[in-house]
Design goal:
Shape: globular
Low-confidence stretches: 18-41
Radius of gyration: 15 Å
Number of helices: 3
Number of strands: 6
Largest sheet: 6 strands, mixed
Order of helices and strands: HHEEEEEHE
Distance between the termini: 18 Å
Number of domains: 1
Strand content: 15-25%
């Protein structure tokens, strides 16, 4: 099986997320989405472990993770390239779509620590519940 280039993987990922953003009942103009996508208007960075209230049963993660906005209701985190032992296992991407009924998460990352850090970032943008998690691998 031929592996896709990193650029192709990112493009496919963004297209998938944009498809999921159609779940939102709010109508967005094509021009507004294009502008938001091109500008990546929001980047929410997870602060150090001292600002995250880690549950007792989850090991704190020390990797940098930024939630980037690509449309009014769609966000993603991009794991740096590497092997599973690099960056505490943060080597894959995850998407977040905020709909009128709640949050859809596309991939919850590879460890409980990374998933909790992603959840922390989601809580910075909305208090809506996570209603679906789509797992495409792992």
């Amino acid at each position: 099986m031929k592996m896709l280039s990193r650029k192709c993987q990112i493009v496919l990922f963004i297209l998938t997320i944009l498809l999921f953003s159609g779940c939102d009942k709010q109508q967005e103009s094509t021009a507004a989405m294009k502008t938001a996508t091109e500008e990546s208007s929001t980047s929410i960075a997870a602060a150090g472990k001292e600002t995250i209230q880690w549950p007792d049963n989850i090991e704190p993660s020390h990797v940098e993770m930024k939630l980037k906005q690509i449309s009014p209701s769609t966000y993603y985190v991009e794991g740096p390239p590497g092997t599973p032992t690099d960056n505490e296992g943060f080597m894959s991407n995850a998407g977040v779509v905020v709909t009128s009924e709640g949050v859809v998460v596309f991939d919850a990352l590879g460890t409980p620590s990374l998933a909790y850090k992603l959840y922390y970032l989601i809580r910075q943008i909305t208090d809506k519940p996570v209603v679906k998690v789509v797992v495409s691998h792992y």
